[in-house]
Amino acid sequence: MAIVVNLDVVMAKRKISLTELSQKVDLTLANLSILKTGKAKAVRFSTLESLCKALDCQPGELLEYVPD
């Protein structure tokens, strides 16, 4: 996959758990886990915005393009 999700890296830098982030962005643990492991097929802009707000980051810190 050419788009890599770096949610786990950003979470580690911010020292925030999946459970805590789930509560802050009002997403289920299952949905966050799918996103964190890179298995998500799509991400809503509203979800991306919530994650950026909760983690105090830019979208480019969460998503990265890596050519195949």
Automatic annotation (TrEMBL):
One of its GO terms (molecular function) is DNA binding. Pfam families: HTH_26. PROSITE patterns: HTH_CROC1. It comes from Planobacterium oryzisoli. Residues 13-62 form the HTH cro/C1-type domain. This is Helix-turn-helix transcriptional regulator. It comes from the Bacteria.
